[in-house]
TrEMBL record:
<dbReference type="InterPro" id="IPR004165">
    <property type="entry name" value="CoA_trans_fam_I"/>
</dbReference>
<protein>
    <submittedName>
        <fullName>CoA transferase subunit A</fullName>
    </submittedName>
</protein>
<keyword id="KW-0808">Transferase</keyword>
<dbReference type="GO" id="GO:0016740">
    <property type="term" value="F:transferase activity"/>
</dbReference>
<dbReference type="Pfam" id="PF01144">
    <property type="entry name" value="CoA_trans"/>
</dbReference>
<dbReference type="InterPro" id="IPR037171">
    <property type="entry name" value="NagB/RpiA_transferase-like"/>
</dbReference>
<dbReference type="InterPro" id="IPR012792">
    <property type="entry name" value="3-oxoacid_CoA-transf_A"/>
</dbReference>
Length: 249
């Protein structure tokens, strides 16, 4: 017990330091721990190595830490939606360790499982394999990849309880569950905080043993949508005609 903190600043108190490694959940800006990221920005901690599938967008998520130049190195898979990221990288101001997306996920999962390294076919014979050990198994060539571990993991969950058990919702699940297992300390932000026993045990994605601290997001918390795609509504007469056709069918 005692895992609940009043706000992001207090939840991160004593955990942040210059030069540390942070895992940040999310895919695009779906499931990102945005409130915790903002608290990291306000702390002023710098020279960070951040492990994340991508770097958010220019004005949200990890893009905020790029603007303040608090990130020294990114270990990522996809960075195409962030102009600040590209500008700093091309100017030699940001170090990047690119990973195929599946390899990144497995490196994080391996770190959380205590596996120091593994072999994968992905990337053999490309720039991804440069400087890495390679081996042949049964006539196939493989690249050795190291597991990843962080000083701090920050994740976003749909629901959590006072013991730190977490449930993620749909695509916001993404990298959050594996990152929660692969850090010395995991801090979660949750949309709905419930009492122990109110979450169905079989629905829990992250057991509370992995989560040291969490905060409940305030009512009305806004979840950004990176790219909204909607269908245009048909004109009333077209909708009525379609409904008639379905009725006859």
């Amino acid at each position: 017990m005692g895992k609940i903190y009043g706000d992001a600043t207090s939840a991160l108190a004593g955990l942040l330091r210059d030069g540390m490694t942070i895992m940040s959940g999310g895919f695009g800006i779906s499931g990102i721990p945005s409130v915790l990221i903002e608290a990291i920005r306000e702390s002023g901690v710098k020279d960070l190595t951040v492990i994340s599938n991508n770097a958010g967008i220019d004005d949200a998520g990890l893009g905020l830490l790029l603007h303040t130049r608090q990130i020294r190195k990114m270990i990522s898979s996809y960075v195409g939606e962030n102009a600040t990221f590209a500008k700093q990288y091309l100017a030699g101001e940001l170090e990047i360790e690119f990973n195929p997306q599946g390899t990144l996920a497995e490196r994080i999962r391996a770190g959380g499982a205590g596996i120091p390294a593994f072999y994968t076919k992905t990337g053999f014979g490309t720039a991804v394999a440069e400087g890495k050990e390679t081996r042949e198994f049964d006539g196939e060539h493989y690249v050795m990849e190291r597991g990843l571990w962080a000083d701090l993991a920050i994740v976003h969950a749909w629901m959590g309880d006072h013991e730190g058990n977490l449930i993620y919702r749909k695509t916001a699940r993404n990298f959050n569950p594996i990152m929660a297992t692969a850090a010395t300390v995991t801090v979660a932000q949750v949309e709905h905080l419930v009492r122990p026993g109110e979450m169905e045990a079989d629905h829990i994605h992250t057991p509370g043993i992995f989560v040291k601290r969490l905060i409940a997001l305030p009512p009305g918390f806004e979840k950004r949508i990176e790219q909204r795609t909607v269908r245009q509504q048909p004109a009333p007469e077209h909708a009525a005609a379609a409904a008639g056709t379905l009725t006859k069918a």
